[in-house]
Design brief:
eight-stranded antiparallel β-barrel; about 190 residues; about 50% strand; 2 helices; alpha+beta; single chain
Length: about 190
C-alpha cells in the first residue's frame, strides 16, 4: 500500500509540474526554394565548386534559442558552377559515381544536430551526425541565426565517408592529380 501511495504521489507531482512548465519548443521548416548549400573541393592545381539542393530540413528553437535540427540533401542534384560544357558534365558525372558520392546507391546525405552550445547572441557551436554514403561521423561547426535566416560552414574530411578518389592518404604518385581530403560546405538557410 505504501508503494502505491508513493507512485500516486510521484504521478501527482509530475502532472502538476508539467501542467505549469512552459514549453516553447518550435520546429521551423526550412524554405527549400530560398535556401542553398554550396560545396567547394580543392586539388593541387586549383578548386571546383557547386551546389547541392536540400530535400528537407528544419531547425528547432526553444525560447528563440537554437536547440536542434535536421537536414537532408539530395545528392542527385550535385552540380558544379565553375565549369561549362563537356568538362562540367564530366565532373558532375564523376561526383555522382562510386568514385565519389555513389548517388545511385546513396541518393541522400543527412545531418542531424545532436548538441547546441550558444557562443554569442546569435551564434552557436553545433555538433551533429553527418551521414554520407551510409557512413555516419560526428561533425562540429559554427552556425549563426539572424531573424529567419541561418548560415553554417562545415569542413568535411571526405575520406571518413569512403570518398577516396585522388586522395594522397590512400594513393601514391598522384602529383598534380591529387585532390585534398577536406572539402567545404556552406549553407545559407531561410525558415
Amino acid at each position: 500500500m505504501k508503494t502505491f501511495k508513493n507512485l500516486a504521489l510521484i504521478a501527482l507531482v509530475a502532472v502538476f509540474t508539467f501542467s505549469f512548465t512552459k514549453v516553447n519548443a518550435q520546429q521551423k521548416e526550412i524554405k527549400i526554394a530560398n535556401s542553398n548549400v554550396i560545396w567547394k573541393g580543392y586539388k593541387v592545381t586549383g578548386s571546383h565548386e557547386g551546389t547541392i539542393n536540400l530535400k528537407s530540413g528544419f531547425l528547432t528553437f526553444n525560447d528563440n534559442k537554437l536547440t536542434g535540427g535536421e537536414f537532408v540533401m539530395d545528392m542527385n542534384t550535385i552540380v558544379t558552377t565553375d565549369l561549362q560544357g563537356e568538362y562540367k558534365g564530366k565532373l558532375e558525372g564523376h561526383l555522382k559515381s562510386d568514385d565519389f558520392f555513389g548517388v545511385e546507391k546513396h541518393p541522400t546525405a543527412k545531418l542531424v544536430i545532436s548538441k547546441v552550445n550558444a557562443t554569442g547572441k546569435n551564434s552557436y557551436k553545433v555538433t551533429g551526425d553527418l551521414t554520407i554514403k551510409g557512413i555516419t561521423n560526428v561533425v562540429t561547426f559554427d552556425l549563426s541565426v539572424y531573424g529567419n535566416k541561418a548560415n553554417a560552414a562545415l569542413k568535411i574530411d571526405r575520406t571518413k565517408y569512403d570518398v577516396r578518389y585522388g586522395s594522397t592518404s590512400f594513393f601514391d604518385n598522384l602529383k598534380d592529380k591529387a585532390i585534398y581530403d577536406e572539402f567545404d560546405l556552406v549553407a545559407d538557410l531561410e525558415f
